[in-house]
Amino acid sequence: MKQFFSKFSRRTWIIAGVIVIVLLVAVFLVARNGNQQVSAFQTANVERGSLQATVGATGSVRAKQSAVLIWETTGIVEKVNASVGDKVAKNETLASLAKSSLNQSVILAEADLSSAEKALEDLLNSDTARAQALRTLDAAEEDYKEAYDYRLGLNGKITIADTYLLNGIPKVRYTKGYADEETIADADEKLALAEAKLNDARRNYERVKDGVDPADVAAAEARVAAAQSTLDMAGIIAPFAGTVTQSDSAAGDQVSAGAVAYRIDDLSHLLVDVQVSEVDINTVYIDQDSTLTFDAVLGRSDPYHGKVVKVSQAGDTVQGVVSFTVTVELTDPDEFVKPGMTAAVNIIVEEVKDILLIPNRAVRLVNEERVVYLLVDGQPKSIKISLGSTDGLNSVLVAGDIKEGDPIILNPPSIMGGPFGG
User: Among residues 376, 363, 378, 377, which one has the least CA distance to residue 416?
Assistant: First the structure.
């Protein structure tokens, strides 16, 4: 053996040693790279669960009813009855002007209102109109009968011809004649007039026989409303129940017509209008549940909730993009949510339960087909899949050779295919 090794020079042994060392290093590096590649994969087991598919958009909060109230005449503010944050009732007077500072037409409206209200009350409670109409009808019937009889008598008028004595007793001889054309024409005109007056009297009585004429009531009520409207110019009146969100008047202020006095919002109903793409609009319906979050509301981890209350049936095109307005009403608002705040809205268009979920980050697009990779015996295995609804993080597995518990690779290397949808 010693003789065998002595046949090789020292240089030969050195070269051989180097070769062995290189081979050993190469084997080590290959093994290490293989282990590093396997250990570099992030995996998660495929699970069953529930998924809510949503359509997301942003919008601004607004009140269901909102009104900016302005002064309708000039004057000096005398009383201020409400301030920001106050809840007010419908028709409540929020502020008023001093009577001495008003123009004459507004001051006289108070007297006009009193007179109009009295006239309306008399009209509603008096029986004079019915009684007068009945008397007028009776008189019209008498006049018509008289004119009719007179005209009828002209067709066979009896006149006295002469007198004579019979056995010493005077007798009258009568003869039948006819009136002239002028007399008949005059009688016809009087009869037509009497008939017209009778018809008018009958119609008037029909209107009031069972009570006050509705047309008269409407006219009287209009006069009351006109006087009240003029008088109301001296104050600011709430058109609906709500909360004062803006107040720009103080006692002693000189105001002019058109100046803003208050803003009122119905904060019991808060709405958010969002724009939904034409691609998603046919999945959105009335009464669908929604979740809402606000960057301006701090310290709240749970989202607010709402329901779709209105879906526009006509789209708007802005820069070539067609979108539809969808209105969501908050169902659990609190004092932290205010009109004007920006809300992120997610409309729940579908909810499925007990289905296999695929993380969207694990999906790749290879040759126009969606695939995921399972870790099988330490190596990635490509699986073709079809997906359904998504919530943005996970998608419903519709088809594919994957079962619950399979280890899916969340970060397959780019060489295995582009990202989901890329």
Answer: 363
